[in-house]
């Protein structure tokens, strides 16, 4: 098969012929129809994501959607011809989705929703799983909650907004001036963080009480702002980017709680992988009901264009999730 291979960090991916993967026990072989490109893929490409544990030579690509071509031993829930999607590799030394074929752990995938195209399905896994693990698993988002999502037009934030709305929450999302309309189109209340400070929007939208749940998709100073925006006593701050040094005083003085989200853990450890498959089944159900629609960049990239796709994401010029289509 053909694959885009990382031969050394921060060097162009090389299109090479490599042996076809074989599905082992518990695996399925998937013909990859679309590979989603995440900012984490770019960091791995540059050699800046040691926690992802991906050393050259390697096939990158964390998210994928495709068609089952073969089923390994001990797999009963999928059969040849099933359309599936998932967050299946590209970290932890497991070959990713920038290839024509991928052997993937069947616990990590779910059936693709019929309402979504392959590129749309490939745009969901990492962002939706991150959002679910924070909003549902950690914070129990539900009707009546006021939820603040930082970076509401971003790859994760855009899905988090839709998930929180689908579960009955009242949702507010921060973004730049250019992203305000995108946020409003999801049904959330848009907040321009460049012209409104934390105290102002906490007063305006919560009467000074703070938000029940604050989701940080930016990190750094935005996580610090989250500690100041959360509701006293019962509030919960969530972040997948809490890797810096932060003062917990603002959070402690509010008596609130913080939860970290490390979405890669099942891929890196092998534990609890079935939970990712279950989460994606929820994503498929929401998409089937029209409550979850990813935002895609309008450009199409073939496997030979994988470096261009990475450049678009790295430069921040994408207008939605970028996908590579290995079968083009």
From TrEMBL:
Residue intervals of the Enoyl reductase (ER) domain: 10-324
Keyword NADP: yes
Keywords carried by this UniProt record: NADP
Name of the protein in its database record: Zinc-dependent alcohol dehydrogenase family protein
InterPro entries: ADH-like_N, ER, GroES-like_sf, NAD(P)-bd_dom_sf, Zinc-ADH_QOR/CCCR
Pfam families (alphabetical): ADH_N (PF08240), ADH_zinc_N_2 (PF13602)
NADP recorded as keyword: yes
A molecular function (GO) term: oxidoreductase activity
SUPFAM superfamilies recorded: GroES-like, NAD(P)-binding Rossmann-fold domains
Organism listed in the record: Mycolicibacterium rufum
Phylogenetic placement of the source organism: Bacteria, Bacillati, Actinomycetota, Actinomycetes, Mycobacteriales
Domain of life: Bacteria
């Amino acid at each position: 098969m053909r694959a885009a291979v990382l031969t050394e960090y921060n060097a162009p991916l090389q299109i090479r012929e490599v042996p076809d993967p074989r599905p082992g026990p518990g695996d399925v072989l998937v013909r990859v129809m679309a590979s989603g490109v995440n900012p984490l893929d770019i960091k791995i490409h540059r050699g800046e994501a040691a926690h992802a544990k991906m050393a050259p030579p390697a096939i990158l690509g964390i998210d994928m959607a495709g068609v089952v071509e073969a089923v390994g031993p001990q797999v009963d829930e999928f059969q040849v011809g099933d359309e599936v999607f998932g967050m299946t590799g590209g970290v932890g030394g497991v070959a990713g989705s920038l290839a024509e074929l991928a052997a993937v752990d069947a616990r990590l995938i779910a059936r693709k929703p019929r309402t979504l195209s392959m590129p749309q399905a490939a745009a969901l896994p990492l962002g939706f799983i991150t959002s679910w693990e924070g909003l549902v698993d950690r914070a129990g988002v539900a009707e009546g909650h006021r939820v603040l999502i930082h970076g509401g037009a971003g790859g994760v934030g855009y899905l988090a907004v839709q998930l929180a709305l689908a579960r009955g929450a009242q949702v507010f999302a921060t973004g730049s001036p250019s992203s305000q309309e995108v946020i409003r189109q999801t049904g959330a209340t848009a907040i321009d963080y460049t012209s409104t400070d934390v105290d102002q929007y906490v007063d305006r939208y919560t009467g000074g009480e703070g938000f029940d749940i604050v989701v940080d998709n930016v990190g750094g100073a935005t996580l610090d702002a989250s500690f100041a925006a959360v509701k006293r006593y019962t509030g919960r701050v969530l972040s997948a980017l809490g890797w810096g040094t932060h003062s917990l005083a603002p959070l402690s003085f509010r008596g609130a709680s913080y939860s970290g989200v490390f979405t890669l853990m099942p891929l890196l450890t092998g534990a609890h992988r079935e939970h990712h498959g279950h989460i994606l089944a929820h994503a498929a159900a929401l998409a089937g009901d029209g409550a979850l629609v990813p935002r895609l960049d309008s450009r199409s990239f073939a496997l030979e264009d994988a470096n261009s796709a990475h450049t678009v994401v790295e430069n921040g010029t994408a207008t939605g999730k970028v996908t590579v289509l290995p079968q083009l």
